[in-house]
């Protein structure tokens, strides 16, 4: 089931990472994240080694560093939260640049920053080398609940349709001289949201009936075979395997 457009996070390419089946990359990213989370926060060099591994993947996938840095803006709320922890934390205190900071808070902030950053980079690399619809097909190959995968597929397919509908409604309001400026206009926005919900619900009903009339039985057909070879599984799982070996050296 195609989305009809190219996702902004995806970078077309023909690298070895791009060519890996999606189920291999999904499992590799999940296993890598588990290894990172299980690593003790005191093992600084282990986290540095994980960053080097992700850097090697980025080079193999031909994903520029500037691209990764731009997409990492999604992590900003976590960074702000991490910086607040030493300030409001309890326990032993230490002075850093004239500020009294909590020692347990500093460790907690480092733990969040290091592990969240590595997880975000791994997710960005996955999204940059795999189309969203292909990721969902990979999830289906990994035997994730079929209903959840199909819901995600339809959400991906119709998200832009609903956003366009919302944009047209906004243009229609503005063409009639309406401009939301204060709380008195909230009822108008609420009615627009209700109309959008009803339209989306009715569209979903029509799509479902159309699918049933075309033989839908609860399973979406897979047009392209995305089976993975032993070599492809080995290539993808090399990342978490090396990360696991690095973690083992820290114990």
From TrEMBL:
GO terms for biological process: cobalt ion transport. It is a multi-pass membrane protein. Pfam families: CbiQ. The chain crosses the membrane at residues 44-65, 72-90, 110-130. Keywords: Cell membrane, Membrane, Transmembrane, Transmembrane helix. GO terms for cellular component: ATP-binding cassette (ABC) transporter complex. Its main location: membrane. It is found in: Cell membrane. This is Cobalt/nickel transport system permease protein. It comes from Nonomuraea solani.
